[in-house]
Structure formats: C-alpha cells, structure tokens
C-alpha cells in the first residue's frame, strides 16, 4: 500500500436568527472564512454564500460565491 498522509480539515459555523451565517475553518492548513444569508421565499429557501480561502499557491487567495435554492 502507498503511504498516505493524514490531513486535517476543521471548521465551524454560527447562525444568527437562522438568517445570517458566519463560518471559519482550516482546509489542509489554509485559513477559510465565509458568510451566508438565508431567505425564505414562499416554499423555497434561498442561500447566498461567500467564502475566502487562503492558498500557498495564490498569494491573494480565492473568493468563492454560491447560490443555492432548496425546494
């Protein structure tokens, strides 16, 4: 078998009034930060999320945005 290294991923999330989320974590030792907004529309839940991920390859880090619709 190949030698496999152990990698840690750790994160936490806090929701304020089930509308606004704050997130932080470590991904392979790199810092991740994020926020999210949840809005109910009729029978749908809409989530808008933003995350910032630091990277040793890209000095400026990565900015990620997602839109999720749950029905």
Characterize the structure shown.
The protein starts with 8 loop residues before the first strand and ends with a strand. With 71 residues, it is an all-beta fold. The protein has a 5-stranded antiparallel beta sheet, with no helix packed on it. The protein contains no helices and 5 strands. It has strands at residues 9-16, 20-27, 30-41, 44-53, 62-70.
Descriptive terms for the model:
single chain, 71 residues, mainly beta, five-stranded antiparallel beta sheet, elongated
Straight-line distance between termini: 44 Å
Biggest sheet strand line-up = 1-2-3-4-5
Look at the helices and sheets and give the structural class.
Answer: mainly beta
Q: Total number of β-strand segments?
A: 5
Helical content (DSSP H or I, runs of 4+): under 10%
**What is the average per-residue confidence, as pLDDT, rounded to a whole number?**
90
Shape: elongated
The number of helical elements comes to 0
**Main beta sheet, described?**
5 strands, antiparallel
What sequence of helices (H) and strands (E) makes up the elements?
EEEEE
Question: What's a quick, concise take on this entry?
Answer:
The protein is mainly beta and 71 residues long. The chain contains no helices and five strands.
């Amino acid at each position: 078998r190949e030698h496999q290294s152990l990698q840690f991923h750790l994160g936490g999330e806090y929701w304020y009034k089930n509308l606004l989320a704050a997130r932080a974590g470590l991904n392979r030792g790199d810092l991740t930060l994020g926020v999210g907004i949840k809005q109910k529309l009729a029978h749908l839940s809409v989530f808008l999320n933003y995350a910032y991920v630091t990277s040793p390859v890209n000095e400026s880090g990565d900015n990620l945005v997602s839109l999720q619709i749950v029905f």
